[in-house]
């Protein structure tokens, strides 16, 4: 088996010098680096990543805890897009991803911190982990650099990133009011996640800003799923008085809401308007085309990777939460009831 000692002998240098070249150290002469690299290529040497990790105390691996309340895993329509762009950027920095499974009893006993240290990962990326997870206290206090999405995790080596969910929700209500709507219902988040809580806050702030009534029976908790949105709006449609518009805290709930409206014999965007939140890729297959608040998923994944890289490689780096602006995407599901056809 070819070793660095064989490379060193042929190059006429020490094994320590070969190790420095393999690990990109700058304290080696240019000619020596070129000579060692030429011999490595000539002999077809493949460095042992585990041995290199022991020497450098870096595994060049990022651990990923990927969870969601509905157990959809990598099929999650929002998180999968963030993860894809995160992977692309962190890969450009030379890191691999290691996914931690959570469906084995032993994995549920051992803490995130212990599992990360056992696997010698250089950093952690958390997606979909609920605020109530007991592992978060240890991770926030640990020495392991950690980046999370939509989870307000703060610590010496931890930071988080989210969309402007309050601003996005206010943008949705502002648009509905502009279109003449004053009777607005909200399908909210039963799990009390940070995005769900912020969107409810934004909804209430915008309603108060426009001096519109907030009807308790028109705020119905759901679970971010299509089925959840369907059943929540089924309950809403038996109310004595119906809203003219429904704002859903997530696009999947909005898709379910549209099914319930159709089933009731009503027309979406005419009898009742619907607006969602996320702008998931699946919407290209939905009819009528859903008006929604777009989260910039690719930007979120890219920025999360860059932030984690700083946390892993700069011990003096000072963290602060990152927020990404949202944008309104106008399509076909919101009626303009100011127009003459609705008077």
Which features characterize this protein?
343 residues, alpha/beta, 434 Repressor (Amino-terminal Domain), Rossmann fold, six-stranded parallel beta sheet, six-stranded mixed beta sheet, 13 helices
What would your notes on this structure say?
The longest helix is centred in the C-terminal third of the chain and has 17 residues. 40% of the residues are buried. Helix content is 41%, strand content 16%. Helix 1 packs across helix 2, helix 9 packs parallel to helix 10 and helix 11 crosses helix 12. The mean pLDDT is 90. The chain is an alpha/beta fold. The protein has three domains: 53 residues, lambda repressor-like DNA-binding domains (434 Repressor (Amino-terminal Domain), Orthogonal Bundle); 130 residues, Rossmann fold (3-Layer(aba) Sandwich), CATH 3.40.50; 146 residues, 3-Layer(aba) Sandwich (Rossmann fold), CATH 3.40.50.2300. Strand 3, helix 8 and strand 4 form a beta-alpha-beta unit. The chain is built from 13 helices and twelve strands.
